[in-house]
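so ive been stuck on this for like two days lol. basically i have the seq below and the ligand is adenosine-5'-diphosphate, smiles is in there too. i just want the complex predicted, nothing fancy, no docking runs or whatever. if the output looks off dont worry ill sanity check it later, just need somthing to start from for the group meeting slides
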Amino acid sequence: MKYYLGLDLSTQQLKCTLINETHTVVFEDAVNFGRDLPKYNTENGAVLHGNDIVTSPPLMWVEAMDMLLSRLAKTPYISDIMAISGAGQQHGTVYWKDMQLLQELDPTRTLTDQLNNAFSIAQSPIWQDSSTTKQCRDLEASVGGPEELARLTGSKAYERFSGNQIAKIYQDKKQQYNDTECISLVSSFMATLLLGKLAPMDAADASGTNMMDIRTHQWIDHLLEQCGGPDLRHKLRLEPEEEVHPLAAINRYYVERYGMNSGCQIMPFTGDNSSTQVAMNLQLGDCVVSLGTSDTVLMSLKEAEPTTESHLMAHPTDKSAYMGMLCYKNGSLTRQHFRDIYADGNWDVFNDLLNAAPMTSRYMGFYYWMQEIIPFAKGIYRFDQGRLLDGDFIVCDNANAKVAGVNIRCMIESQFLSMRVRLERMMGGANSSGNQSPTLKRILATGGASANLCLLQILSNVFGVSIYKNQEGSNSASLGGALLAKYGTLSKTTTFDDMVKQHQRSNSEPELICQPDLTATSHYTSLLGEYSRLEDLAVHQFSLSH
Ligand SMILES: Nc1ncnc2c1ncn2[C@@H]1O[C@H](COP(=O)(O)OP(=O)(O)O)[C@@H](O)[C@H]1O
Ligand SMILES: O=C(CO)[C@@H](O)[C@H](O)COP(=O)(O)O
């Protein structure tokens, strides 16, 4: 039997999924950064410096790789793994000081031991960072504004996008920037580790840099220069990779240390959202809502016009298509925070409070616990009958449980209403040549919080469509990686769709989880206008205080 490995280096953990020839998952595991690697002092995988600078240590990711591979080496599959691909949290950048170290890896020692000095920047900026507003405005101004940057690259400038992160390091950390030999994204960093030499960024993940032409998938010289000066092209070295094909065989280090197959091929790695798109194999009218550390909304698009509030990214397996995406920072960590302050850290209590609070049009809340991406705002804004409150809700009998429940309900409804308002706008833009816009038919839910059926029912009610989940594999980004690994061995002779169809089984069809209560949907539809109006007021209030 041949096996295919998918890795996913997400915000909070490094996960793996191993599939066989017929796409059955045979092994899954994860190294959790907080639980398994506490010495790096991260909180939920990240280090917060002051208000808006958020990083993770690349050496922690290297050590997670050491741990995961030692666990994998204890399985009977290791020597029959034919190919590896995978995913990384998007936008984060790794700064290599000494690539030579990768060529000289000694199989008797860990990677952590040997790559201690490999990085010129010990803390990599990650997607949660929002400290590059100045660089964003400069980048937009250099091409004539946010709309033009979105037209060129698929997105206006966002604080977390890699080009703006690189620009800040170029401007503020000159010495470390000059010491940098090469720059990787989190995804291509994983592929680089396994290859023992620099791996290209794949075009789908490079769409999250603000530096790649969204149509041709080539770097745009002017944007490279604006972000990282004349040396950046040299530090990236390679153009974005738009094919899924073998880059080279795995470095001999892994063969000698772990007994991996010397013929095991390393494929390009992609962004975690693109990899989720692969695992879900989206059909027209499907939309993925991923409730991971971030909340994201994904759609496959054949044609599209970039907007200034959503992202247009290259499709991971179809050069001529796109992925439309919305991304929210206040996803699971904000829900988790509410669980901790209102529900003693218990999801069941959280759900009881949520269900005890009825739907209402009286109370509305916007909970930007962390600096939000869309809209760009921070803080908590509560409204009672359209009026901004100074403090908490005053709920008739003022019982604590009721106030907690109203806040939890307002937070969840507000998260999902924001997705609906913006998804509808994104789909409206997906008909650039006058064709009818795609209609939303179903939502495929994934990510850690998709384990919570109460949340999924509200999601279904807000959108008025049924929710489905994949039956195979608990983590879609690493499953997508495993499928990409296999596809890379076949892509010369078959399409991705044909490869998937060949092994379709009853349990490879997504499973129906819940259906909408259409009375609730009408209620939410009637709130959309007021929701947008109050959101504008909240954003205005935020801008007054900044
Ligand atoms: N029952 C639950 N209800 C709501 N959220 C949950 C539940 N179980 C797990 N989660 C959330 O899932 C999150 C992790 O999701 P995951 O997709 O694994 O994240 P990532 O891929 O970014 O590391 C946790 O932060 C946690 O808050
Ligand atoms: O910034 C984005 C997408 O643009 C995030 O979705 C990151 O890719 C983090 O992913 P998770 O750890 O939440 O899966």
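The chain is about 40% helix and 20% strand. The two ends are 59 Å apart (CA to CA).
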